[in-house]
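Cross-check.
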Amino acid sequence: MKIGPVRIAHAVTLAPMEEHTNFPFRLLMKQFGASLVCGERIDAVDVARRDRRALRLLYTTSQETPRAGQISGREPAIMAEAARVVEQQGYDLVDLNFECPIRRLLHRGEGGALLSDPPAIARIIGAVVRAVSIPVTLKIRSGPDASQETAVEVARQAEAAGAAAVDVHARSVAQAYVGGPDWAVVARVKQAVRIPVLGSGGVREPADALHFLRVTGADGVAIGRGCLGNPWIFRQARTLVQGGGEVPAPNRSERGRALLQLVEGEFHLYGAHLALRRLARTSCYFAKFLPDFPAFRQAVHQVRDLAGFRRLVKEHFR
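Predicted model, tokenized:
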């Protein structure tokens, strides 16, 4: 698959997830087989004014190439300037978020709120395409709610405005992440446009990725929550998609090493104070399979520094 001039090695990619897909997370998923990784959504206003926190979230290196930086907003000029910053930071693609169901974004008329106005999305895409030299992609949903499916029209207008690919989450904005996805929406978008179509929603196991691609005919699958605490899903899914057999599940020590790499990266990126605030949630995704998970969960809340966390991992992931 190629998105503009950017070659994507295979069909199994990482979906953007707010508060998850930071640099250390993306790098880990890349190491375990994600062909394309995407950063978490960042407000275009903050990126355009080069806010220090926004630039920290945009941190990237060539280790994770190819990678996309994602922004959200509703003003074409601001989105265009933010996209320039994303390109300056070294990203290979800039992804525009028109799918986020978070209430505060919807109240501002951003994210998924724009799915009811395909021409507005097209205007934003056109402004961004003119502002950068890297491919512009977009993330959408089926539509605002069950009664309004706008994905096909949005994708058509986005393609006409210069978008290089579209990623369709197979739920409506109103659904958020509740209820089953409708993969048929992705299939309809694929039939309607010539640009690459990726999709997401409901892919929790390696076999789900293969089934999704067969059912929808999509060019790629973007795995989101299915990879939390489970970066191996990319390697396993890629092997199935490419015609191979099942890849063995990781053992306890392998899980511990991956978790420690992620947490050490977050300490480096965020500093100790914020990394410690994130520690319990990050760790529990990896530790939930442990027979002594309740004891681990209790102990991780007592950790006060990275050295203490290393000791905890050594104790529980032997």
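The longest strand covers residues 67-72. Residues 63 and 218 are 27 Å apart (CA to CA). Passed to J.P. for a second look.
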